[in-house]
Amino acid sequence: MSDFEPDTRLVNDSYPVTELPLCQLRLMDDARFPWLVLIPRRLNVSEVFELETSAQQQLWREATAVGKAMLNALSGDKLNIASLGNVVAQLHVHVIVRHRQDAAWPAPVWGHGQAEAYNLDRLADMRARILAEVEGLELTPPAG
Q: What is the DSSP letter of 107?
């Protein structure tokens, strides 16, 4: 969709990584957690049920495939996938790899302490790692 723009709060709090078939994939600017956000490129959508059925399925396909790849690549203990939208209404899905020793474990990452911004080297490394993991994923709907 050519008119699609992510909410400015998502833009200000994250870095673009790549475009998936449905979603823009972004990395949250908090180096304490491997925290991705998928934003479906759809206008005026705030709830999953507002997407057409095929887009709902694609959103889940992208979130779970990216999450599983990152969980394995980062040797995570748990994968959190959530869509809240209480602060930013635009539909977006958080995909967070959790480790038992992370700063917020076992509580949710939201509102826990102060975010630690990525420095340029660490940001470049994390973006490259995410791209390497996402590159080989089958993210298109199955035929038929």
A: S
